[in-house]
Amino acid sequence: MSINLLSDKGVPLERQTFTWKELVPEPISKLNDDAFTRARIILMNGIESEALRFGHAAARMNRHLQPTLALVRRVEQHQQTLVNWLLSADHSPLETTIGYEQVAIEVTAHAAQREPDPYLAAVFRFGLLEDFDHLYRFAALLDRLEGKDANNILQSYTDIRPGRPTMVEHRHPLDDLRVPYDARKAHPLTRLHALTVTAGEHQAHDYYMTIGPQFADPVARQLYAEIASVEEQHVTQYESLCDPTETWLEKWLLHEAAEVYNYYSCVEYEGNPRIKAIWERFLEYELGHLQHVAELFKSVERRDPAEVLPEKVPPPVEYTSHRRFVREVLAREVDLRARGHELVPANREGPESPSVQYRNVLNREGSPSEMVAAGWVWRPGTELSGVVHIHGRMQ
Amino acid sequence: MNHGVEMGMNRTGMDMAPQLSDEMLENAQLPTPSGDEGALAQMRTDYIDVAEPLGSVPPPLSLKGAATAAMEMLKGHRPEVLLDKLSERLAFERTAVRLYDALIQKCLAVSPHADIPPLEELRAFRDEEARHLELVAAAVRGLGADPTTVSPCADTAAVSAMGVVQVLSDPRTTVAQCLQALLTAEAADNDGWLLLIKLADVLGLEDLVEQFQGALHHEDKHLEHVRLWLSEMVINEAMVI
Question: Of the candidates A32, A88, A89, which has its C-beta nearest B9's C-beta?
Answer without folding.
Answer: A32
